[in-house]
Amino acid sequence: MKPVQLDFQRKPSTTPWIGLVLVALGVVVILWALAQQDIVRQRQQQVSDREDDVAWLKKKQDQAQQAARKETPMNDKVAAIRKGQLVSPIPALALLEEYWSNDIGLTKLEVVTADHDIKLELESRTLEDTLSLVDNLTSDPRVSKVTFAHQGLKVVDPFKPTQSQLEFTWREVRR
């Protein structure tokens, strides 16, 4: 084997064009690859933004549909119940107050606004006091139906009050 002689001072006789071309081509390929990566990242960002917009619009649409479902009831029965819940019992209680007597005691009151119905359990000194309340309610045009049930005397109480149940249905007065 022959030892290699290297002379670093000698000028090359030919320019290595092929090496320069390959290096330049490598730089161009690397720059092109970096540009493609940037394009892919931008497209991914656009797709992500679009997906977020679509998800937001879908959520907004679902909320609007739920609000619409809450506003429109499923059937007539639900609509009637909701309408009944909006009815105020104050006119019926004012009507009851108008005919009330000091000789009558209220032990239980149940108000069903959906049916325009009031159920009362009463105690009175005499049966006539309760019957006068029933007569007054029956004669009033704002009352559509009155039901009266007499249970008898409360023997345990020393005043011996009369116990009775009263139920009436009122009409709404349109103004």
How are the secondary structure elements laid out?
Blueprint: H1 17-71, H2 76-85, H3 90-99, E1 104-112, E2 117-124, H4 127-139, E3 143-153, E4 162-170
Antiparallel strand pairs: 1-2, 2-4, 3-4
Unreliable stretches (pLDDT < 50, length at least 5) are none
What portion of the residues fall into strands of 2 or more residues? 15-25%
Number of alpha- plus pi-helical segments: 4
The level-1 CATH class of the largest domain: Alpha Beta
Report the CATH topology name of the largest domain. Answer: Gyrase A, domain 2
Let me know the CATH homologous superfamily of the largest domain. Answer: General secretion pathway protein M, EpsM
Question: What is the mean pLDDT?
Answer: 88
How far apart are the termini?
Answer: 124 Å
Spatial shape: rod-shaped
- Total number of strands: 4
Radius of gyration: 46 Å
Label the structural class: alpha+beta
